[in-house]
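Continued from yesterday's entry.
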Amino acid sequence: MNLSEYARKHGIQYRAAWNRYKAGKIKGAYQDEVGHIIIPDPEENMLMDAAVYSRVPDGPKRHTRLAAQQERVERWAVKNGYRVAVSVAEVGSGVNDKRRKLTALLKRDDWGTLIVEHKDRLTRFGFNWFRLFLEQRGRRIVVVNENDNDRADLVADLIAIIYSFCARLYGQRRSEHAKKMTRVVEQAEAERNGEVNHE
């Protein structure tokens, strides 16, 4: 907004607004190349403060993959004009709703836009609820790459779901049942990839 709009919005005279600007009391205000005073909208300004969230499932090379993903998203954010206020990376399943670092990130109030590489980096299910929840609070989610079909992550999440259901169905005996079901999933995936070892 310009200085006149700022004055109207705050119920003051233009001269009072000018005095505030000259005293440096209007955060982010600047003079453009033709001399107009421009005041950024605080809400729009907050949306440029980004929180980067990266996640990979447990598995081989998880730390290398996680660091690479975090770097890619941070680079994308800066390239697209965001200020990275916070960057969080964690190892865990996309179906786990008790991720400690994500929980702490969502409680912070120093960012306006949450940036993830793919939807399922945030959550395997219920992504649109996250979006709605954040939008109701004046925030937003940006997904760098809308296309994602990482079979390894899908298999890891399926195994996490199996363990969760076995825990509910079988209690303390869950590990044996979960191991059996996990072997079935892993064998099916190996057969699909041509890695079958018929014993």
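--- second protein ---
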Amino acid sequence: MSLIIMGLALFNISQAQTVKIDSSYANWYYQQRMEYFSKTPIPKNAIIFLGNSITERAEWQELLADSKYPVINRGIGGDNSFGILARMDEIVNAKPKAIYLMDGINDQFRKLPHEVSVNNYRRIIRKIKQQSPKTKIYIESALPINEEMTKEAYTKGRNVLVPALNQKIKAMAQEEGVTYIDICPLFQDENGVLKKEFTMDGVHLKASAYIDWVNFLKDKKYL
């Protein structure tokens, strides 16, 4: 190895070592949701919607009242890929019919490297495959945000990160042989920004937007 190549390699290692990975997740809200989950066990053959606040805020059971399978909401506001991975035992032990996982934006808010997020997705998928092999896995794209409407500093400069994350999630889903669903076209404009008519705060969806979401899943035969 030449001195130049060796120097570049050492520089890259040094740079990688300076990246701070915030893997925290178990705040007070997470803990109280987990307590709630422990007292409301998942029935067998359930359809589970798994994710963060964007998942939690949906009335999935009402929107899918005609389902012949139980519909369960396992969203936790503020959750990230580390938190979802940490609570997968409850999910896989229930042997669900299907899991719809949508996550990502909270990872972007803390600027986690995409490789870290994708690796957590991969670990989630493989855990499902290993412990509940009959479960159908659907990975949904992370939604964009509208930074003109957001107030928190940690949201600024993050929307540009979403398309690259989704590309990597899609590639990973293909590698793992699971279904990837791109829901971004439902809610974003031509610039990849969450449309104002679908959000109140630039991040979360209005209640009525979930009707479009469910109709899309049904039209595309994902539900």
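The longest strand covers residues 47-51. Residues 25-219 form a domain with the Rossmann fold fold (CATH 3.40.50.1110). Will compare against the first tomorrow.
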